[in-house]
Design a protein that fits this description.
Blueprint lengths: L11 H33 L4 H29 L1 H18 L6 H15 L2 H12 L5 H29 L2 H22 L11 H9 L15 H5 L2 H30 L5 H7 L2 H24 L3 H15 L1 H4 L7 H29 L5 H30 L2 H21 L2 H24 L1
Amino acid sequence: MAKGAARPIRGLRWWIIALVMTGTAANYLARSALGSAAPTLTKSLHFSTQAYSYVVAAFQLAYTLVQPFAGWVLDALGAKLGLTIFALGWSLANMAHALATGWPGLAAARGFLGLFEGAVIPAGMKAVSDWFPDRERSVATGWFNVGTSIGGMLAPALVVWCILAGSWRLAFVATGAVGLVWAVLWALWYHRPREHPRISAEELAYIEAGQPSSEAPDAGQAAGWLSMLRTRRIWAIALPRFLADPAWQTFNFWIPLYLVSVRHMDLKQIAMFAWLPFLAADLGSVAGGYVSPVLMRLAGVRLLMARKLTVLAGAVLMIGPACIAFAPSAYWAIGLFCIGGFAHQMLSGALITLSADIFPGCQVATATGLAGAAAWTGGLLFSLLVGQLAGAIGYNPLFACLAVFDLAGAAILFSLLREADRSNLSREGDRSSVLHEGDRSRA
C-alpha cells in the first residue's frame, strides 16, 4: 500500500461514498434537466407529447445499450479513469442540448448524453465493492443512491430559475457545467483502498477482513457477458430491475408534464413542489440501506433474505402512487408521488447492492451494467407506452401498472435468488484466485 506523508483520514470510506453520491447527483441533475424544462421546450420548439417521448427514448435507448459496455470498461480500466472519461462525456453532451433547434436535434444530444451517463451506477457499485465490507454495502449503496434523488430534487428549481433568468438553453449549460467540476474532483481524489494515500492501516484491514476472499485486490478474473448471462444469478437481479425501473424513469421524465397537463400547475408551482418526491426518494435510499443490517442483527435473517424482504417492502409501498387516480388535488398527487419515490429507491438500492453480494469484485461493474441494461429496457418500453397512451387513456392506468410491475419483480426475486448464490461466491473466488496466481507465477 503506497502512502504519502499526509495524515490518514478517519473513516475515509465514507468520504469516498460521499464523493460517489455527489457524482451521482451531478449525473441525475443533467438527465433530470429535460423533464423540468419539458413544458417550456414543447412550446418553444413546437413539438408534441409523442415527439417528447421520442426524445426521452433516445436517451433511454443509448443508456440501455451502453451499460454492459460501460460496466466492462470500468472493470477493465478501473473506476477512477473510467468514470472520469464518462463524466466528461456526459457533461459536454448535456451542454450540447442548448444547440438544439427542434426535437430531432434534442433527441441527438439526448442520445449522446445516454451513451456517457450509463456508467454512473456500475461505477458506484464498483466503488462500494472496493471500499466496503459486505455488512456495510447496503448502507453505502443507500447513501450513494441518494444522489439520484438529489439530482432530481435540484433540477426543477435550478432549471426553472435558468429559464426565468435567461432561457432553457442556459439550463442545460449550467447543469452540464456541474458535471465538469465533479469530473476533476473525481480524477484527483478517487483511488482504490490499497492505493489511497490517506487511508489508515486499520481501516484497510477492516475493509479487507469484511470482504469475501474473491474480492481481495487483484483476485479473480472478469467474466464475459455471455457466460454471465448463462447464470441464474444475473436474471434474479435483471428481471426485477426490468420491472422496477419504469417507475423511476416515469418520475424523472413525466411528473412535470403530468402536473401541467392534468393537475394544471404552472412553472413556479412545479419549482416549488416537484422536488418533494425526490426528497422522499432520498429518505427511501437511506432507510432502505439500513433495513438489511437491522433485519440481520435483530431478527437473525441471512443477507440475501434481508435484501429480498427490503425489495418486497418497497413493492408493497408502490401501491401508493398506483392510487393517484383517487387524489383529490395536485398536492395529494404529489404526496402519492412522494410515497412512490421513497418506495422505489428503497427497493432499487437493495436490487443494485445484490450485484456486489453475489458476484466477485472484478465482475461487479459488468453485472451491474447488464442488470442496468435490463432496467433501462423496461423504462424505455414504458416511456414509449406513456407517449402513445397518455393522451388516449390518461396517466392514471399507467401509474397503476407500476405497482403491479414491482410486486411481480419481488415475486421473481424470491423465486430465482437463493442463499446458495452467496455461498458459491467464495468458492468461485477461491478457484479464480488460484488460477490468477498461477497466471502471475507463469508470467
